[in-house]
Amino acid sequence: MTEMLIASIALIIFAFIIYTAYSGQNAKHAQRLKAYELKETHMNKSMEKIRSEISLIEKEISETEQKLEDMHKDS
Q1: pTM above 0.70?
Q2: CA terminus-to-terminus distance, the chain
Q3: In 3-state terms, what secondary structure has residue 1?
Q4: Buried b (16+ CB within 10 A) or exposed e, 24-43
Q5: pLDDT by residue (tens digit) across 5-43?
């Protein structure tokens, strides 16, 4: 009877240790996944800003080229 009780307690402790290790690993994975998602979102926003700036610069260049062409035609 005592052996059965000790074996049951040992099994419960072993199961708890395994569960704790698994939970910790799962939490680390979830944290890394969240960090990756945040970095990805930040990078997407940064890339969108850069695309917008490039678009504005291209527009400025084309307007300047057009003005120069118009000035050249008037001369």
Answers
A1: no
A2: 110
A3: coil
A4: eeeeeeeeeeeeeeeeeeee
A5: 999 999 999 999 999 999 999 999 999 999 999 999 999
Which residue bears the tokens 């300047």? 64
pLDDT at 74: 75
Look up residue 17 and give its two tokens.
């240790």
Structure-token pair, residue 12: 């419960």
Residues in the chain: 75
Maximum distance among all Cα pairs of the chain, rounded to whole angstroms: 110
Structure tokens at 34: 């969240």
Say how many C-beta atoms besides its own lie within 10 A of residue 7's C-beta.
Answer: 10
Q: Which of 44, 24, 26 is nearest to 36 (CA)?
A: 44
Residues 52-70 have pLDDT tens digits of 999 999 999 999 999 999 8
